Amino acid sequence: MTTSVSGGLAIEGLHKVLGGRSIIHSLDMAVRPGELVSLLGPSGCGKTTTLRMIAGFLTPDAGSIKVGGREVVNLGPEHRPSAMVFQNYALWPHMTVAKNVGFPLKLRKRPKAEIAERVDAALTLVNLMHHKDSRPARISGGEQQRTALARALVQEPELLLLDEPLSNLDAKLRVKVREDIREIQQRLGITTVIVTHDQEEAMSVSDRIAVMNNGRIEQFSTPADLYSTPATEFVATFIGSLNRLEGRIEDGRVVPGAGVVGIRPEDVVFGPEAHPRGLAATVERVVPRGHFAELHLRREDAELRSYVTGVPPAVGTSGCARIEKWLEFEDGQLVGQGTPA
Amino acid sequence: MPRVLSRGVVVLLAAVLALFIIGPLAWLAVRAFAASWTYPDLLPDAWTLRWWSVVFSDRALGVAVQNSLFFAPITVLVSAAICLPAAYAFARFEFPGRRFFLIGVFAANSFPKMGLFVSLAALFYALNLMNTILGILVVHVLGTVVFMTWIPAAAFAAVPRSLEEAARDAGASKLRTFFSVTLPIALPGILVAAIMSFLSSFDEAQGTYLVGAPDYMTMPTQMYSLVLNYPTQVAAVFSILLAIPSVALLLAAHKHIVGGHLAEGFQIK
Amino acid sequence: MTAELEAGPAVVVRPATAAAAGRTRGLLMALPPMVLIAFFIGFPVVLAFGFSLGFTGGLNRTIALIGQNVHTAHGIVPTLSAYAEMFTNARFLGDLVVTVVVTVVSTTIVIALAVGIGLYLKFSGGLIGKVLSALAVVPLFIPVVIASWAILGFYSANGFLRSVAAQFGVDFPIWSYTLVTVVIGSVWTSLPFATLLVSSGLQAVPQAMIDAARDAGASFWRVVASVVVPMAGVPIIIATTFTAIGILGSFTVPYFTGPNSPNMLGVDMSNYFSAFNQPQQAVVIAFIVFAIASGIAAVYVWANFRSAKESGAV
């Protein structure tokens, strides 16, 4: 399979009203060539609407969509250089796996020999040659997913779009398939946009993530940056876990105030010995989370969740809990980060 | 739909279809009020209600109306009593010969009707069913079996088992579950079947004529002789009367006559 | 050992007996309509088949005595002479051709209209879509006798079309009592059932399948031809077979609107039975029509089997 020449995606001022309600508010986004970007957000945030506008199934009320520098906003989906993997895969049940994958090439009137060759290459890439002549109904969910991926890749698109590609797979398969998708995407260097509501999925495959809420991009950045420096309170709570407390932090304790403080559970340290920056705390609940445990701690100023590795303390254990790092928000926006003096 | 079919073309085609479907009916309806009509005028020379009084004062025609309104509901009830348990069995039980029975219903339906009635004649003579109410009922019910088994079977099959299990779990008996959960959910499909059966019985002419005439004339069989023996206008009046129950049914049931129940019902599973 | 025996019946045998009970109950519940069909359709049809082969004894005795021109078999050897008589009858052969042609033409028009209306409903909908689908269902509620009568008048010598044409000085052809009105009447009466079946089949094609095809680069008509129609293939085939079988055996429409000769075999059956008093010939025609219908029915059964196979059930 040849590597696609990917030209990136540029969205400017995208606006969409559906049923009298503004779904997308003047959205801007630039995806670099060869980059994998996730649109992440809760249901109803507008991420699927955005993807469907990029693919051409919905017409925006305003804005521009450029793929590889070419304006595509007035083109139907059949004329756009993008290929999509649908949420339920949308494999045509009356065609075999190979026919499904070959259909886009047949539409482009490629010679039979070329079609056969490229279908084989795409199926080899997703490791599905053994199911070439099977009907979609006869293969597993993971295999259907890979067929849908092959059908998109065979078009050698400038832009690959995936709509919740893993939501119908079981937990174990999901990890495997997302790694496969990432590996293939990097090998071919295809500019890719994935829609997902699963933050772990987005974090593990993306170069950058656009976190969406109420039709706007709250923050568009790398996974590490989103986690360490969330631009808004929404991003902080949506990505990873957060102790959200009203007030501010003074001398290691939470005091009443106008703002909001966010503390990651791993930044709350609990130990049996007293600490100069800590306060007395009691373990109220222990939630095992696999290789670590989540403690629910009661301090005199607040209730805090903390992650510990190794053998967790028993419920009722008394000790000392201190805060190592926190985020400060005002009106939902990040205004500062704090560490103990 | 692409611009290929521009709106104007579509509207034109819709108008042609409207003329094709409604035109003949409207043309006939106007005739019922026509005193006389000169070709090629588009409307009658004069209007009259005379033909209506002819129909209403004719005893034979009145009897035909009565007979039709008697046979159609009875047919639906008898057919439901015979076929609905079978429909439930097709939907919920796996039993020997199930597929054979389903195809049997279809095969029975594809034998040409006129041929069937001709074949039935010998048996009816032997059983003394000729010119009897029972004989006519048998003919009418035979025409409804395909609707009354297939459509409700699909409707029963479409009721999620989990809903029945939830009712059983809540303490309902099997019978109670059927009447409180399964039947209400399957009811729209059964209603469609009942409407199709009613129309089939109401429409049945060939068999009724062979078995019932001249003792038992229904509206459609009466039409046969009307067309030959009365002025066109009388047949037109009678046609309007004959269409009233069906149209009333159409208006009452138009929400339920959706293809889904039919389409589901007509696939053997 | 005892424990195993205890566990055995509780776990394994009970579901089996439950299934067995379901089998018995299912069979009992399914029996009434089957007995009805077997007794009032299956049995007479078998008798009639025997009659058509010249067996004139038993329950066929009365009808064989009343009827004229009856071919009788010698002993237990069936005779095909009644069939031979029909197949050497030029008028019958003409009517056979007419019946097949009218069926093919009418079915083609009905399915084309049904698919057209169904596609418009699926892709455009709106007011026109509603009007189209409402129009197509109307004939379901009009008794066939009336429909035939109304259509006859509409296309007759002093009918609407000729009256309108005459206003412009055009002499429109008279279609009443020709095969044209037989086709028109057959289309008119068969349209609702086919439209309901086909449009619900088209509606059932998931939007994602259509989107996927457009994303792959397919034009509108290509989407229709390669995805929508094949995916609704089973309902379309079912609609086609039912329409064809219905028209093939129809009587009322050709009887009222068609010419005396050539006409469709449904009318011939009635004529041979009532007017000519030749019941054996009527029965022979019925079996010839049934043979053609069975061929069409085989397509239907095959389509159902294919759909079961596609959904992975077989």
Structural class based on helices, strands and sheet pairing of chain B: mainly alpha
Oligomer: heterotrimer
Structural class of chain C: mainly alpha
The Rg value of chain C, from CA coordinates, equals 26 Å
Q: How do the strands line up in the largest sheet of chain B? A: 1-2
CATH superfamily of the largest domain in chain C: MetI-like
CATH topology category name of chain B = MetI-like fold
CATH A-level architecture of the largest domain in chain C: Orthogonal Bundle
Q: Percent of residues of chain B in helical segments?
A: over 70%
Could you describe the 3D structure shown?
Chain C: It is found in: Cell membrane. Chain C: It holds the Pfam family BPD_transp_1. Chain C: It comes from Kribbella kalugense. Chain C: It is a multi-pass membrane protein. The complex is a heterotrimer of chains A (341), B (269) and C (314). With 341 residues, chain A is of the alpha+beta class. Chain A is built from 8 helices and 19 strands. In chain A, 25% of the residues lie in helices and 37% in strands. In chain A, helix 2 packs across helix 3 (112-125), helix 2 packs parallel to helix 4 and helix 3 crosses helix 4 (141-153). Chain A is elongated, with a radius of gyration of 24 Å. The model of chain A is unreliable at 1-5 (pLDDT under 50). Chain B has 269 residues and is mostly helical. Chain B has one domain (59-265): MetI-like (MetI-like fold). The model of chain B has no long low-confidence stretch (mean pLDDT 82). Chain C has 314 residues and is an all-alpha fold. In chain C, 76% of the residues lie in helices and 0% in strands. Chain C has helices spanning 2-52, 61-66, 81-87, 90-123, 126-137, 144-154, 160-167, 179-203, 207-215, 220-231, 233-248, 252-257, 265-275, 279-310. Chains in contact: A-C, B-C. At the B-C interface, helix 1, helix 3, helix 4, helix 5 and helix 6 of B face helix 1, helix 4, helix 5, helix 6 and helix 7 of C.
